[in-house]
Write a structure and sequence with these properties.
CATH superfamily: Response regulator
Largest sheet: 5 strands, parallel
Number of domains: 1
Shape: globular
Oligomer: single chain
Radius of gyration: 13 Å
CATH topology: Rossmann fold
Structural class: alpha/beta
Helix content: 40-55%
Number of strands: 5
Order of helices and strands: EHEHEHEHEH
Length: 121
């Protein structure tokens, strides 16, 4: 069973994604901010990370930058989930090492497709 970490400060969005992924058979771990998310990455070593960008305490770019500096976490597929659709933001996230960038509100099929894509590669 693949383990997915969701780092999202919006409780309703986080719970909706968790429910969706639970129904798909994934083992889901939740974090409400980037700092907690980093702690959980190091404790659980998930197979994939879904992360918001704009969050309190530590934003998604900071989380990804930190993960890229550690050999044990640098290869974990990282997907940004965000409401920011500016091209420069997308390019910045991809330049940091994100595998994909999904904008909110997202289509369930698109999210599941991207997760399956990166877990199978």
């Amino acid at each position: 069973m693949h383990k997915i970490l969701i780092i999202e400060d919006n409780k309703e969005i986080r719970e909706n994604i968790t429910e969706l992924l639970d129904l798909e058979g994934y083992d889901v771990i939740e974090a409400e901010n980037g700092k907690t998310g980093l702690q959980l990455v190091n404790e659980t070593l998930p197979d994939l990370i879904l992360c918001d960008i704009m969050m309190p305490v530590m934003n998604g770019h900071e989380v990804l930058t930190h993960l890229q500096t550690q050999s044990i976490t640098a290869s974990i597929p990282f997907i940004f989930l965000t409401a920011n659709v500016e091209k420069k933001e997308i390019l910045a996230g991809m330049a940091l090492g994100a595998k994909s960038y999904i904008t909110k509100p997202f289509e369930t099929d698109k999210l599941l497709q991207e997760i399956k894509r990166w877990l199978s590669s």
